[in-house]
Amino acid sequence: MANVVPVRKDLHKNLKVATKRGLEHIANQHIAPITAREYSKAANSFPIFLVKQPEAARYRSIVMLGLEAGENLYYKDERWNGTYLPQGVSMVPFGLGVDPDKEKTLTTYIDVENEYVGEDKENALFDAEGNDTEFYKSVQNSLGRLYENETMTEKFMEELAENDLLQELELHVNFSTGENKKLVGLFGIDEKKLQDLSDDKVLDFHKRGIFIPIHAMLGSIGQINKLAQLRNLSDNEQKIAGIQVHFAKETAEA
């Protein structure tokens, strides 16, 4: 069981982290978080969507790793088989969280029960003098960049929503058995409304680089076919005969 706690020099002076760490923690995840700054690299591997937080009106930025809960088509035989690994996934056993001793301050957290954490591993967090090691500094820098990317992604998603550029999508999956499944709750870019942006808004988006993640997100949709191919190459007996993207609004009207 995970035990995620803030890193403290006095408590974790002898704690170390293994050099080689696996990705077992996402073996059964069909989605993973992704930041807008990663879209261009991730778009060649996964379909990128936004999903709504169930408890709020906010969105989350995700890549699809499988077509149903518990299915990760990119993780097989204890190996990651994708060409890109989302930054947030690679940071385990570390994470960022609010410092319980300092209000409105973020600090590094670690899962002390993780199998890759212990006093017998290779990479120490602190040296003999109690200073941060180069390894730990690198972790902190990576977490800092991830936080900056997540903050930028929040603003990007707000921008899309404020300009009414999001539309709800549905994935219709047809199986060789004749069974059909519909995946809902996914949001993508409304291309028609994107084309209808005013010249001033187009120039504004261009100058601020907003079109870069937008076009990467649009281009990534074709990777749903890759999910179908990976599913058909897997041990799952239920093969996919076809998969299509529909606009939820059009489906409802029909």
Tell me about this structure.
The structure is a single chain. With 254 residues, the chain is an alpha+beta fold. A hairpin with a 4-residue loop joins strand 12 and strand 13. A six-stranded antiparallel beta sheet has the order 3-5-4-13-12-14, sandwiched between helices.
Concise overview:
The protein has 254 residues and is α+β, with helices and mostly antiparallel strands.
Question: Features of this protein?
Answer:
254 residues; alpha+beta; three-stranded antiparallel sheet
Largest sheet: 6 strands, antiparallel
List the helices and strands in order: EEEHEEEEHEEEEHEEHHHHEH
Q: What general outline do the C-alpha atoms trace? A: globular
**What is the topology, as strand order, of the major beta sheet?**
3-5-4-13-12-14
State mean pLDDT (0 to 100 scale).
Answer: 92
Instruction: Show unreliable segments.
Output: none
Strand content: 25-35%
* Secondary structure: helix percent: 25-40%
Helical element count?
Answer: 8
Q: How far is it from the N-terminal to the C-terminal residue, by CA?
A: 47 Å
Computed CA radius of gyration, to the nearest angstrom: 21 Å
Q: Compute the number of strand runs.
A: 14
The secondary structure category is alpha+beta
